Amino acid sequence: MRLLTLDGKYNICGDRVRIARENQNLSQEALAARIQLNGHSLTQKAISRIETGLRVVPDYEIPLLADALKVNPLWLLGLDC
């Protein structure tokens, strides 16, 4: 199966994940730890790959990321509300 990309990226939320994380002065490791405390195994390397667009972000991870970053899930998707 071939994965489709948008401008060479495998997700559309990576840039906003990075922005929200940096605005809160969180390291990638700290963000991964927040997500892990909620029972999902995301590593620092996975966060890095999400932010650079090298990793697909399944739909079930959007709320996990949004909750850990304290942002609206729609904002992560670029659907500002």
What is the fold's blueprint, element by element?
Blueprint lengths: L13 H10 L4 H10 L6 H8 L9 H9 L3 H4 L5
Helix pairs in contact: 2-3
What would your notes on this structure say?
This protein has one domain: lambda repressor-like DNA-binding domains (434 Repressor (Amino-terminal Domain)), CATH 1.10.260. It is built from five helices and no strands. Helix 2 packs across helix 3 (44-51). With 81 residues, it is mainly α.
What best-fitting shape do the alpha-carbon axes yield?
globular
Q: First CA to last CA: what distance?
A: 34 Å
CATH architecture: Orthogonal Bundle
Helix content: 40-55%
Largest sheet: none
Order of helices and strands: HHHHH
Annotated CATH homologous superfamily: lambda repressor-like DNA-binding domains
> What structural class results from the helix and strand content?
mainly alpha
* CATH class call: Mainly Alpha
